[in-house]
Structure formats: C-alpha cells, structure tokens
Amino acid sequence: DGVRDPFDIVFLTSSGGAFGQRFQRYVADQFSQVGINVVLDTLDWSVFEDRLTERDFEMVMLAWTGSSESDPKQIWHSTEAENRGSNYVGFINPQADELIDKARRNINRDERMEMWRQFHGILHEEQPYTFLFNRPSMGFLDKRFKYHLNSYRTYVSTWYVPEDLQIKSR
Q: How far apart are the C-alpha atoms of 96 and 124, rounded to whole Å?
C-alpha cells in the first residue's frame, strides 16, 4: 500500500576498540539507505558481556577466532544456549549437536573432518550469525622455524626447528 512501518533495531557493541565503533556506524549508514533506523548502543566491556549472557540484545557484533579443528561446542551446542553459556543467539539444532558430540570423540581425522564439514554446512544453511569477513593476519619468524599447513591450508598445524638449525645449549 506504499505505507512504510518504522523499523528500528538496536546494534550493541563494546567500546573496547575503534574498529567496532566504525563498523557499527557503517552498518547504521547502510541500513538507513533502505529505511532501517539503527540505534547505536556502545557499552563498556563488563556491561556488554552482561547483556550478551542475559541475551538482552537485538543485534550484536562479535568476533570469533579458530581453525577448522576448533571445538565448536562452546558457541554452537544447544547446551550452551542456556545458563549464561556462549551460544548467545540460542542456536539449537539436534543434528548439529550430534555432529559436535560425535566429532569431539572421534580420533580418526578424516572422519572427524567430514563431520565438521557437515556441521559447517548446517551453519551455512541455518545462518544463526551473518559472517562478514576474516581479518588477515601476518607473522614474522626466524628462518630456522619451519611449519606444516593442515591439508586444507587454513592454519599451521605443526611448528618445528629442524635439528641441524636448533641452537644447542653448551
């Protein structure tokens, strides 16, 4: 009918870093272009964390780190959706829970990685979070240090110094 209902959403972030606040303003600007008013709510970390654990937010920006072998139970398992756990968005999926539980007990790497792929497929389909980007990172090492990338080339799985390059104490 051409009549727009007002759409306001509160975007919660912590005051701990300039990036979060800049990103918060960027999102507000982009949403405003389609008629959505984003109310910016920037809080000190302790208050921000309390709001997360109490599930008292409409939209929030979080940063997670990990690798393809990170244990996802803390963030994604339904048991963490209650009692102040870290599943802040209340994601509950019995199939995801089963895959997490089985993969955590499986010592066969290939089988475990297949379970993680299935689990991440569920996250992709259900989209309990909107994943926006990965921050690039860089490290500097002495030439003596060598490493192996995991088979998916997503993270370093082993660091070592070859014996002939090791510095021996006298």
A: 12
pLDDT class of 66 with cuts at 50, 70, 90: low
Q: What is the mean pLDDT of residues 41-49?
A: 92
Amino acid at 12: L
The pLDDT tens digits for 76-104 are 999 999 888 899 999 999 999 999 999 99
Confidence band (pLDDT; 50, 70, 90) for 30?
A: very high
Contact in structure between 103 and 119 (CB atoms under 8 Å): yes
Residues 139, 149, 136, 62, CA torsion sign: negative
Torsion angle (degrees, nearest 10) of CA 104, 107, 113, 119: -20
Asked whether 150 and 69 are in contact (CB, 8 A), the reply is yes
Q: Where does 2-135 show beta strands of DSSP type E?
A: 7-14, 36-43, 59-60
78 within 8 A of 87, measured Cβ to Cβ: yes
CB of 152 closer than 8 Å to CB of 68: yes
For strand 146-149 and strand 156-160, is the pairing parallel, antiparallel, or unpaired?
antiparallel
- Please tell me the distance from the alpha carbon of residue 95 to that of residue 27, in angstroms, as a whole number: 33
- What per-residue confidence (pLDDT) applies to 160? 86
